[in-house]
Amino acid sequence: PGTCKDRDIMRHDPQKLIEGCLIASFAMGAHACYIYVRGEFIREREQLQAAVDEAYEAGLLGPNAAGSGWDFDLYVHHGAGAYICGEETALLESL
Predict the structure, then answer these.
(1) Vertex 71, ends 62 and 86: CA angle to 5°?
(2) How far is it, in rounded angstroms, from Cα 67 to Cα 2?
(3) d(Cα 94, Cα 87) in Å, to the nearest integer?
(4) Tens-place pLDDT, residues 32-87
């Protein structure tokens, strides 16, 4: 999430982003998801991280996610400040 439209989701309904990550990752058979948050989105990252922490506490993330027998971890990474889109090497450098 890196554009202005994503700010509202991260500020006001970060659970929607987490749910989307869960559904997409389950469909792909992935056991981890990495969310890269634009560096300027400080408040949004805090809101998203709080929602991720709540999801872990509720058992929706982590080992046996949501009682499904499927292990799933979600990581939030706060970028260095630049909007990175379509340039994989820049994203890796920022990570």
Answers:
(1) 85
(2) 31
(3) 11
(4) 999 988 888 889 999 999 999 999 999 999 999 999 999 999 999 988 766 656 56
* pTM for this predicted structure: 0.82
- Amino acid symbol at 72: F
Query: Please, are residues 40 and 82 in contact by the beta-carbon 8 Å criterion?
Result: no
Alpha helices (H) along 1-95? 4-12, 14-28, 42-57, 88-94
Architecture label for domain 4-94: 3-Layer(aba) Sandwich (3.40)
Domain extents in the chain: 4-94
Quote the tokens at residue 23: 């559904």
Strand partners, 72: 62
